[in-house]
Design goal:
The chain is mostly helical and 108 residues long. The protein is built from five helices and no strands.
């Protein structure tokens, strides 16, 4: 299993309520927020092919936030915004610069 998969697996382990008494204590929210915090993971270098897997794995683990766990997943299959079609992800910095130049965008 790639390290990116292990990272997402570990984060799911931390966020879902424990099922084994004595193994994991309850989640303690130190922020004082009324609404729980939500984490969003998007594709990074060489991890785009794991976005569907991570969302489906979160769903299989009964995480109520599985749909928002990853971005860049297959929109037709799992919902969300397709990064490649909406030009949110680029194979290279050069392509990002070309798209921004064509559309008069300023990229910081």
């Amino acid at each position: 299993m790639p390290s990116t998969s292990l990272t997402k697996q570990s984060i799911i382990d931390l966020l879902i309520p424990g099922q084994s008494p004595g193994i994991k204590g309850p989640i303690v929210d130190m922020s004082g927020r009324k609404d729980p915090e939500i984490l969003f993971f998007g594709p990074d270098e060489n991890s785009a092919d794991l976005m569907d897997w991570a969302a489906e794995h979160a769903r299989a683990r009964n995480a109520p936030w599985w749909k928002s766990f990853t971005t860049g997943k297959s929109a037709a299959k799992l919902g969300g915004i397709p990064h490649d079609i909406c030009e949110l992800a680029f194979p290279s910095d050069k392509e990002l610069a070309d798209v921004s130049r064509r559309n008069d965008l300023i990229i910081c």
